[in-house]
Fold this sequence. Notes:
This protein is α/β, with parallel strands linked by helices.
Amino acid sequence: MANPKILLAEDDVTMVSLLKTLLKMEGFDVIALSADADVSAAVRKENPDVLLLDVHLGHQSGLDILDSVTNSQDTNTRVVMSSGSNVKEECMQRGAFGFLLKPYMPDELITVLKQAIKAV
Length: 120
């Protein structure tokens, strides 16, 4: 079976580097997007198991991207949102599978991702 694929949409370069390393060590295939990438198009193209999406993504709204991805009939990708602001309730109401409040622990991230993958 192929490794689960995680699409990473995060604008903090250091965070991207750390997450890529951690997730690859845990056996995930990781695709990191640039902060100004068309995330919805990348989800359609890559069809990841999970999109790990920052709420505040450079010049884009993670919440708008969440709406686009969850309302799309083209994919069954689960979306896990992350933010330094506690906007969990809004993210969950808008269709996120999970929410991580930054800073979060690596094991918390892995647990949420594995739950999302099992739910696909």
